[in-house]
């Protein structure tokens, strides 16, 4: 009896101590939880709650009847999408622009971060970073408008200069052959510097003694980049690449819409602009929700495959 009483008393003390310890840990972490709260609310309100609207992809949605009163039509809208004569054009254009982004733009911030990391003059490095970050804060309206003004066929500044020198004027904004490369150049100019920040942060965490050991072994700057910097960036590159695959069907609605015109429509019309043109201007809400769901399913599938592949090669992936 005495032994049982002692054990019970000990368990009671442990329980109180454990409760006090958990309360202390929770209280200690309260500032962090409060910092997380705005981000958590953002995702709940703007990401998770709107997912309920996916239901209208399977309905003939009527704004006056609402979600509950609109009739269910099953996969009718998906069938209409796949039968649409423009489907393969949209699919091709979206994949080509995403491919350009993925294989031409994605490496640029990595290269830029490595180059900036090698700069040893502090004032020059800070000045270069500032100049590279500034375009990110300009809107696409400003960037596309400046391009249109400079390359206008009739009175654009650069075209006037080319004409003065005896060269032909460049129809940059209206020639379909220039559209994708113009899009790529503008994306690189606007976002490359800003996207390099996360890679610079990863390089800043590299142990300086690794560079010292490499120099002692006679490694050149290029060897240090190859054997120290790039391996340090490997996990970050893989995670960001996987996340970018999730947006492979998102090509940047505002940017493409501003570059789009009747002459380049065959190469510039993508799912994002198609959803705007059909869903907003023609009020086909259910149909364009089905288009959006189709895009999301492809993105989810690619993320899953890429994540599985990354785990096969020994990386953690995103989950």
TrEMBL record:
Instruction: Name the GO cellular-component terms.
Output: plasma membrane
Q: What is its main location?
A: membrane
Check the record and name the Pfam families matching this protein: BPD_transp_1
Ranges for the ABC transmembrane type-1 domain? 91-306
GO biological process terms held by the UniProt record:
transmembrane transport
Classification via InterPro entries: MetI-like, MetI-like_sf
* The organism's place on the tree of life at top rank: Bacteria
Membrane protein topology class: Multi-pass membrane protein
Q: Where in the cell is it found?
A: Cell membrane; Membrane
Q: Which UniProt keywords apply?
A: Membrane, Transmembrane, Transmembrane helix, Transport
Annotated TM spans: 30-49, 95-119, 131-151, 181-204, 225-243, 285-306
CDD domains documented for this protein: TM_PBP2
Q: Say which family it is in.
A: Belongs to the binding-protein-dependent transport system permease family.
Q: What is this protein called?
A: Sugar ABC transporter permease
Organism encoding this protein: Paenibacillus whitsoniae
């Amino acid at each position: 009896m005495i032994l049982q009483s002692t054990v019970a008393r000990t368990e009671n003390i442990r329980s109180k101590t454990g409760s006090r310890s958990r309360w202390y840990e929770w209280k200690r972490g309260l500032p962090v939880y409060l910092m997380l709260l705005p981000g958590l609310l953002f995702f709940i309100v703007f990401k998770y709650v709107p997912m309920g609207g996916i239901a209208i992809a399977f309905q003939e949605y009527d704004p006056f009847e609402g979600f509950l009163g609109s009739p269910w039509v099953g996969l009718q809208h998906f069938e209409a999408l796949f039968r649409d004569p423009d489907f393969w054009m949209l699919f091709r254009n979206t994949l080509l622009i995403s491919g350009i982004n993925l294989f031409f733009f994605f490496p640029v911030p990595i290269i830029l971060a490595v180059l900036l990391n090698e700069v040893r003059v502090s004032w020059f490095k800070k000045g270069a970073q500032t100049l590279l970050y500034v375009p990110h804060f300009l809107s696409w309206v400003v960037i596309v408008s400046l391009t249109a003004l400079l390359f206008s066929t009739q009175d654009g500044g650069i075209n006037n200069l080319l004409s003065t020198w005896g060269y032909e004027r460049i129809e940059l904004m209206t020639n379909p052959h220039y559209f994708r490369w113009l899009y790529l150049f503008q994306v690189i100019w606007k976002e490359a510097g800003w996207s390099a920040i996360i890679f610079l942060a990863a390089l800043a965490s590299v142990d300086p003694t690794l560079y010292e050991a490499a120099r002692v072994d006679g490694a050149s700057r290029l060897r240090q980049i190859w054997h120290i910097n790039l391996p340090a960036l490997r996990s970050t590159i893989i995670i960001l690449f996987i996340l970018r695959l999730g947006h492979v069907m998102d090509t940047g609605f505002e940017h493409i819409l501003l570059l789009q015109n009747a002459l380049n429509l065959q190469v510039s019309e993508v799912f994002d602009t198609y959803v705007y043109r059909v869903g907003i201007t023609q009020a086909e809400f259910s149909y364009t929700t089905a288009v959006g769901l189709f895009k999301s399913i492809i993105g989810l599938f690619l993320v899953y495959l890429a994540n599985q592949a990354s785990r096969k090669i020994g990386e953690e992936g995103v989950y």
